[in-house]
# Entry
Amino acid sequence: MNTRSDREKRERILADALRDHQERQNTYRERALKLFPKICARCGREFAGKRLRELTVHHKDHNHENNPPDGSNWELLCLYCHENEHLRYLSREDASQRGEQTPHTTYRPFADLGALLSKGENRPDDPDNRAEHEQRGTTD
# Structure
């Protein structure tokens, strides 16, 4: 039996759920998930379904009040990369309070690129170098 109070209760629950859904749609997380691909900006892992909750919004300037509509202050990071980013920020902040100069980043992806490239310059399997290596007897 559906009584009037049951219908009113269901309508109230549905109205609350709809209001909550609309409020979530207006949060910066929901806006960021609409703007950006569901990929961690640091490690590149993709997120979908239940794992989407592991993807967080990072404020690049560390100011959670700075939420521009275009999302220019946000990036999506997984829980691990987000934690790492905040730890790096805190250690830089701590070092600057002590008056120490710290580099912005320690990772140098192309540091040994010159050495790697020069290693491969005179490879015997390169057709341009084959004759020289055959002459020296250093081919495979």
